[in-house]
Design a protein that fits this description.
The chain has 88 residues and is α+β, with helices and mostly antiparallel strands. It has one domain. Helix content is 22%, strand content 26%. The chain has a 4-stranded mixed beta sheet with strand order 3-1-2-4, with helices on one face. A hairpin with a 7-residue loop joins β1 and β2 (31-36). It starts with 5 loop residues before the first helix and ends in an 11-residue tail after the last strand. It binds zinc ion. Zinc ion binds at residues 35, 41, 43, 78, 80-81.
Length: 88
């Protein structure tokens, strides 16, 4: 019997997806920071302050999704783990 093709499924998807979380609490400047939970981050908020931001291939996708779901909040990438998405 043929095994289920889980591995090939992930290969077909190509880019590896990474898990992101966003800090429930804002920084001093009002930004809610997005962190990469797959690579981990020294500045990751405590687990009770983490809100799931989904799986994305880049931090830009995570920031965009969180912004879409929270249009009234300021969302920014963490300087340390999402530097490409850090703007302020
Ligand atoms: Zn971070």
């Amino acid at each position: 019997m043929k095994e289920l093709g889980v591995d090939s499924f992930f290969h077909i998807k190509g880019k590896q997806m990474q898990k992101f979380i966003v800090n429930k609490n804002a920084q001093n400047n009002g930004d809610h920071e997005v962190h990469n939970a797959t690579t981990g981050c020294t500045y990751m908020p405590n687990s009770e302050n983490q809100v799931e931001a989904g799986f994305h291939s880049t931090c830009a996708g995570a920031v965009a999704e969180v912004k879409r779901n929270n249009p009234t909040h300021r969302i920014n990438g963490c300087y340390y783990c999402c530097n490409a998405c850090h703007t302020s």
